[in-house]
Design a protein that fits this description.
- Helix content is 36%, strand content 20%.
- It is α/β, with parallel strands linked by helices.
- A 6-stranded parallel sheet has the order 8-7-9-10-6-11. A 5-stranded mixed sheet has the order 1-4-2-3-5, with helices on both faces.
- Strand 14 and strand 15 form a beta hairpin.
């Protein structure tokens, strides 16, 4: 069977003129990479010579043409592999990409022998590109990067494509409205792991492209993507560095953007909000937010606001949305619509596993679920959990221990520790770095992360420590949350105006557990600090093993 070939020429007229019209690849499906010192462009074509002539006139900062060919290429395969290469080049981070999204490439259809091209052929291509020094990192390293997982060039599901088209249409129609007291609002809801941030990244990328196109209704619009989450903010800024037409200045945290636009007395066109459930619903003098609700202020400052929202991911009382808060803002907006995303993408698990985690969020402890493709495992000690996660990390990478926020009182100098119930073993807790997202720092495999370092991100395997605040009542046969032992005191600030504070605190803790448990793509490992809870989980595991 023939192998992949990569042929290279200087990106200049003489090279293109030299190509003989009899050369068999000139009218055959091929993929190509144009690269310069800092930038690259990836494409596919059946008219290679003509396409190169066109690029020579329009594409700047390029030095070399790299042709990728294979005797078994067909147009469906090159179309699919082009999109895949763009995503991996983004994750490789060697070049800034000149590529723009193409609506038709957002969803790649099935075709004959797709798995062969998707796996075997693509790996051959990447091996060749590494040998030719066009890329730096092996595939498995890129696949574990947050920038790759949030790539705006990702192939979308049909459900996500439908949502993207709806959002683009909504923005193009509503942005024409004259300035009103409140802009138009589109609410996209979905629980953890349904791919909300991926589709939002794709949408914002397309919006920013259209803002540069004179023929688009969005031409010269001023738009922002907002996220009130430091780790995700880092990832979006990193993506902006790798995509030429995205600018870091268009990614912001809510309070600084609100204060900036208010000072300028300015209304912008579109504001997208990822993880909108993290927006403040109360003033926060410490963080320089003096109004009552982040979302309400954003609606005053933009013609269109599009938010990603999940009520079950609220982590602070001052971000707690009661049943009427969002409805009130919908009614205040010029026009509003909503959309529900439902398909679970992160956890490669069956319904039994998903239902088990959802039941835990409702304080119900069911017998352990069984899934041959997704591992749920209980550990007797924190040390055993930590060792198991390290072994997984050595094999597949991106495997980490995370914990409920129960350990602030365990302090040694400037380092906090997660400890076993008997105190014999401990690991550092909740460190952060301004340079890396927590999970991507290789040293954090020796630590435990918190809800704030991991929310919104994927892990291959997650080891969840259920700390002292999470207990089991054998008599009532249910999970009990001791909110006094939950040490994230910032989560409890802003109690004023909340009807049932105790219920609100419990919801915060249960939300955090649900988010932690849904981080793992391939497996969920659990260690429970509470003796009764650990004993019951181990009993269920023993029963499962005997079946």
């Amino acid at each position: 069977m023939s192998a992949i070939e990569v042929l290279s020429w200087p990106f200049e007229k003489e090279s293109i003129d030299y190509l003989n019209n009899d050369t068999h690849f000139l009218n055959y499906p091929v993929i190509y990479v144009l690269n310069g010192h800092k930038e690259a462009y990836i494409g596919e074509t059946v008219y290679f010579k003509n396409r190169m002539k066109a690029h020579l006139k329009s594409r700047k900062n390029m030095d070399q043409i790299n042709l990728i060919k294979h005797e078994q290429f067909n147009r469906s395969a090159t179309f699919h592999l082009e999109t895949k290469l763009i995503n991996y080049f983004l994750g490789d981070e060697k070049y800034t990409l000149q590529n723009k999204s193409k609506t038709s490439s957002d969803f790649t259809h099935n075709y004959y022998n797709k798995s062969y091209y998707d796996h075997d052929i693509f790996r051959q291509i990447w091996t060749k590109l590494m040998k030719n020094n066009l890329v730096d990192h092996p595939l498995h390293v890129i696949e574990n990067k947050d920038i790759f997982k949030l790539s705006p060039f990702k192939e979308l599901t049909l459900e996500q494509v439908e949502l993207k088209e709806k959002v683009l249409e909504f923005c193009e129609e509503q942005v024409r409205n004259d300035a009103q007291a409140y802009g138009s609002l589109l609410v996209i809801e979905g629980e953890a792991g349904v791919g909300k941030s991926v589709v939002l990244s794709s949408i914002f990328n397309t919006i920013q492209e259209r803002a540069e196109e004179a023929s688009s209704p969005l031409y010269k619009t001023e738009n922002y993507l907002v996220v009130n989450h430091e780790e995700m903010f880092k990832t979006y800024k990193d993506i902006a560095k790798q995509v030429k037409h995205l600018k870091a200045k268009n990614f912001a945290k809510p309070t600084p953007l609100i204060n900036k636009l208010q000072q300028e007395n300015k209304q912008v066109d579109i504001i997208f909000v990822d993880e909108a459930h993290l927006l403040l619903t109360k003033s926060d003098t410490y963080n320089n937010f003096h109004a009552n609700n982040h979302l309400e202020e954003l609606l005053k400052l933009a013609r269109v606001v599009v938010i990603i929202f999940d009520q079950d991911q609220v982590l602070k009382l001052k971000s707690l949305w009661d049943g009427n808060s969002l409805d009130t803002l919908k009614k205040k907006s010029t026009y509003w619509e909503e959309y529900q995303l439902t398909n679970q993408f992160r956890m490669q698990a069956n319904e039994e596993v998903i239902n088990w985690v959802n039941a835990f969020k409702q304080k119900k402890l069911w017998p352990l679920p069984t899934d041959n493709n997704y591992e749920v495992k209980i550990f007797k000690t924190l040390q055993e959990l930590s060792v198991a996660i390290k072994k997984r990390d050595e094999v597949v990478g991106l495997s980490r221990v995370v914990s409920t926020f129960d350990y602030l009182h365990k302090k040694d100098g400037e380092t906090y520790y997660v400890k076993e119930s008997n105190g014999d073993y401990q690991i550092p807790w909740n460190t952060t770095s301004p340079k890396y997202t927590w999970a991507e720092n290789p040293d954090t495999v020796h630590e435990a992360g918190s809800i704030y370092t991991i929310q919104g991100f994927d892990l291959n395997y997650v080891g969840v420590v259920l700390g002292p605040s999470v207990k089991y009542d054998e008599t009532r046969d249910e999970i009990v949350i001791d909110t006094d032992l939950y040490m994230d005191k910032g989560a409890y600030s802003g109690m004023n105006g909340i009807e049932n504070v105790a219920e609100g605190k419990e919801k915060i803790v249960l939300n955090s557990i649900n988010i932690l448990m849904k981080r793992g793509i391939n497996g969920l490992y659990i260690y429970a600090y509470d003796d009764a809870l650990r004993k019951k989980l181990l009993e269920y595991q023993l029963v499962q093993q005997k079946e």
